[in-house]
Design goal:
Blueprint (H helix, E strand, L loop, with lengths): L3 H4 L9 H17 L15 H11 L4 E5 L5 H9 L3 E4 L3 H15 L3 E5 L3 H4 L2 H9 L4 E7 L15 H5 L5 E4 L3 H16 L6 E6 H4 L2 H12 L4 H18 L4 H4 L15 H13 L3 E5 L10 H11 L3 E3 L14 E2 L3 H7 L2 E5 L18 E6 L2 H4 L7 E4 L2 H11 L8 H22 L8 H11 L4 E6 L2 H9 L8 E2 L10 H11 L4 E7 H7 L2 H7 L5 E6 L4 H11 L12 H7 L3 E5 L5 H13 L4 E6 L11 H14 L1
Length: 637
């Protein structure tokens, strides 16, 4: 026989033990897959690590978690329920992360998504990347194969750490009971500190289940092994289990609550410099984006600060609605022209990406301040006059403490901007009067705007119909508009809506869907019904991917891949137990919207299917980007 050292060169048993322990560790699979061992769901649960996970989440302010069930994560779900958390199970794993993202954006408390191993996790990737690019503090918890079977071809076993690495701020795998609380606390700290973003925590199957059950199931089979090999295997498995369950649940509970979160703050000199520039400015512009809304608890103070500053303001992303439905200081149209003429520009939580034409939309002679927690965003594409890496919302609040405009300081500039606003509104009114059958999308959006209640919370999930609505539909309050962000992800609507309604039950949640985008999450109407989440979905159904169709046909004279049907989406909603309304005539729109409101106020989700004609309202929305790319290239060289 070969000497032991040649068989086990690293001093471990990993080259010999696998063949012997696989039958034993397969017992873990039997433990949770066997229906004969399911206990009374109303019985008091015995102690397991899943209960500890629920306690840690609750200690960090979590009230609701989103999941799609799987055997790997069953103990976590049971633990969350036993800790008093609301557990909402969805119909696609992407919705768990989108819903958690919505919770984080609206509350500032990290949203939590819990998914099973392998394909359960891979199904979340688009949503995780969207959260990363939107700087949303989301905690993704996923199951994994047992530690004894890792890398040996067990069911749903993939390298989840490598899979998630490009999409999260931080990731870890729990390898012992003693690591569970410290790593979970660290996850919550990291996702909120600095530039917020998603984090990933992996839970191997065996660490989550009750220690006595795991030991009994594993050691039962290895006990049957004879001879020296049996002795070695039993020693190895017992040592492994001792390490896995090192520490006790009671000891793990002795944590002191959340770890401190680090938020970059502005200095007094930075704020003073901007204040001095504003005093001299003749044509200032303030652009506020989602990056200024990363502390939702301070949003009222931010609103007051912006109003006190008096600077003509454009709002984008999560900042839409910050100044309410109507405010003389806020501008909605002709932003490019305003930025080209401005002499001082403040970008608060707004990167100079495609939405600002990579910085080319801003006057080259203007004094440009870029403020963001992200250093990369501060200096993206164009070097500002001054860049400040700090929380943009905090910066504006501090700026309002030291700067007060003189009466009518920018009245002449405001008059110019308001004149352009009026011209644009008149143009939109003309477009709304164009006879388009069955329905003119601009007119539908106008009627939606007239109908929306003061407590409406709007979820934007689509291309052309959402783009059209952004010209006409006005968020009523701060934190009442949510779109995917820079990634432009279709399919956010279902998850965003359930997260919003779960965390803000007093809001009347409206999803503004394109007919293409609604197909991604239409099945979540089942979730709304089962979990009493009454939301309204407004589907702009023009039977095509209009944003693609329009320019594709213009450039290439071919509509391949861009045509859909006037599908009866309202019947799909009815099939899930919700309500559905079909609208084909403009005179029926107000009554349909009123019926929808009545349904949700009585606890029923509803989908309103507007059959639209094809419009040229947003013609050129794609080709414009080609021109911008060319302009940026010329500037670069």
């Amino acid at each position: 026989a070969a000497p032991m050292g040649s068989i086990l060169p690293d001093g471990s048993l990993k080259y010999i033990v696998p063949l012997a322990i696989v039958p034993a560790t397969l017992a873990l699979w039997k433990m949770w897959s066997s229906r004969e061992e399911v206990e009374d769901p109303n019985a008091t649960p015995r102690e397991h690590a899943g209960i500890l996970v629920g306690e840690v989440l609750k200690a960090h302010g979590v009230e609701v978690v989103f999941t799609l069930t799987g055997g790997h994560i069953a103990p976590i779900l049971v633990g969350c329920k036993s800790s008093g958390l609301r557990v909402i199970d969805v119909r696609h794993e992407a919705s768990t992360v989108f819903a958690a993202d919505a919770v984080a954006r609206l509350s500032g408390i990290p949203g939590v998504a819990i998914v099973t191993a392998g394909p359960g996790l891979t199904n979340t990737i688009t949503a995780v990347k969207n959260a990363q690019l939107a700087c949303s503090p989301v905690v993704i918890l996923a199951g994994a194969t047992s530690t004894l079977l890792k890398g040996r071809g067990s069911l749903q076993d993939v390298n989840q750490q490598a899979l998630m690495a490009p999409h999260v701020k931080w990731q870890t795998s729990i390898q012992s009971l003693g690591e569970l609380v410290p790593k979970l606390r660290r996850a919550f700290q990291v996702c909120r500190s600095g530039v917020p973003g998603p984090v990933f925590v992996e839970f191997p199957l065996d660490i989550l289940y009750r220690e006595d059950d795991v030991r009994a199931m594993v050691l039962k089979d290895v006990a049957k092994m004879k001879g020296a090999l049996g002795y070695v295997v039993r020693w190895y498995v017992k040592r492994h289990l001792d390490q896995l369950f090192s520490g006790t649940l009671d000891a793990a509970r002795a944590f002191k609550g959340p770890l401190p979160v680090t938020i970059p703050t502005p200095t007094a000199s930075w704020v003073s410099h901007v204040a001095q520039e504003l005093k001299r400015a003749k044509r200032p512009i303030l652009v506020i984006g989602s990056g200024a809304m990363q502390q939702p608890s301070t949003v009222d103070a931010l609103r007051q600060a912006v109003q006190s500053l008096g600077v003509p303001t454009y709002l984008a992303g999560m900042a839409r609605g910050l100044l309410g439905r109507e405010n003389a200081q806020q501008m909605r149209h002709k932003r490019r022209e305003a930025l080209k003429e401005a002499d001082v520009v403040l970008l608060a939580g707004v990167p100079m990406d495609f939405r600002l034409e990579y910085g080319n939309a801003i006057n080259r002679d203007a004094t440009l301040f870029s403020i963001s927690r992200s250093k990369q965003d501060v200096y993206k594409n164009r070097w500002p006059t001054r860049g400040y890496v700090c929380d943009a919302g905090m910066f504006l609040r501090k700026l309002a403490d030291v700067f007060v405009p003189t009466p009518n300081q920018w009245e002449e500039w405001l008059t110019v901007l308001r004149g352009r606003e009026a011209d644009r509104e008149a143009w939109i009114l003309d477009k709304a009067e164009v006879d388009i059958r069955p329905l003119n999308p601009v007119r539908v959006c106008q009627l939606v705007e007239e109908h929306l209640p003061p407590n409406a919370l709007l979820i934007a999930d689509g291309g052309d119909f959402v783009g059209t609505s952004s010209y006409t539909v006005k968020p009523r309050q701060p934190l009442t508009w949510m779109d995917p962000g820079v990634f432009g992800t279709l399919g956010v609507g279902g998850g965003f809506a359930m997260g919003s309604k779960a965390i803000c039950p007093q809001k009347e949640v409206y999803i503004i869907y394109g007919d293409g985008s609604c197909g991604y999450s239409l099945a979540e109407f089942d979730t709304y019904v089962r979990h009493n989440l009454p939301v309204v979905a407004l589907v702009g159904n023009d039977a095509c991917w209009m944003q693609m169709y329009r320019d594709q046909v213009r450039f290439f004279k071919d509509d391949v891949g861009s045509v859909l049907s006037h599908t009866n989406y309202e019947n799909v909603a009815k099939g899930f137990g919700a309500e559905g309304i079909l609208v084909e005539r403009v005179e029926d729109v107000p009554a349909a919207l009123q019926r929808a409101s009545e349904f949700v106020r009585n606890g029923k989700p509803v989908l309103v299917n507007f059959l639209l004609g094809r419009s040229d309202f947003r013609e050129g929305s794609i080709s414009l980007q080609l021109r911008v790319v060319a302009a940026q290239f010329i500037h670069t060289i």
